Amino acid sequence: MCIKVLLAEDAEPVRKAIRVLLSEREDITLVGEAVTLSEAVHKAEELQPDEIIFDLHMAHGANERMPTGPKLLAISFANDDEAKASADRIGAAKLLDKMNLSQELIPAILELAPEWTAT
Questions:
Q1: Which of 37, 46, 93, 94 is 20 to 30 Å from 57 by CA-CA measure?
Q2: CB burial class (10 A; 0-12, 13-18, 19+) of residue 85?
Q3: What does each C-alpha distance from 29 to 23, 88, 95, 109 come to in angstroms?
Q4: Cross-strand pairs, 76
Q5: What CA–CA distances, in Å, run from 15 to 19, 20, 22, 100, 115?
Q6: Cα–Cα distance between 30 and 51 in angstroms, integer?
Q7: The whole model's pTM is what?
Q8: What confidence tens digit (pLDDT) does each residue in 78-111 have?
Q9: What is the number of H-type helices and E-type strands within the chain?
Q10: End-to-end distance of the chain based on CA atoms, in angstroms?
Q11: Phi, psi of 72 (to 5 degrees)
């Protein structure tokens, strides 16, 4: 079964890099992209992804709430205590450093997937 992923990131270079990483996998499908939190919430309702990769700072101080169905995978250039606390408040299952995505993103997606792909 393929893991359906929604990407919510406002920086095009980061989205492009993630697109490349995900395109190399047959077991992960990028079902959509969003550049705002509002767009991410609407696309999550429409596309029903298993996981959402989102820029932690898109959700900071926003009135919209992150969807509760999919697993949330936060990404940020900051991995300090404040970022970790923010990711926890939002309900992210993991927080990854954007500088290490090439090594950490795929393993994190796969780690979160068993619950979703067991059916």
A1: 46
A2: exposed
A3: 8, 26, 20, 11
A4: 97
A5: 6, 9, 10, 14, 26
A6: 10
A7: 0.88
A8: 888 888 888 888 889 999 999 999 999 999 999 9
A9: 6, 5
A10: 9
A11: -105, 125
